[in-house]
Hints:
Elements: H1 6-19, H2 25-35
Amino acid sequence: xxxxxxxxxxxxxxxxxxxxxxxxxxxxxxxxxxxx
Length: 36
């Protein structure tokens, strides 16, 4: 939808990484979802 700024997306990814540090696939999925 593109309603969020890149900084906000980065913060989301960082927060998610801190909360649950997985293999990084989750981060890729989040980025892909945000891109769509």
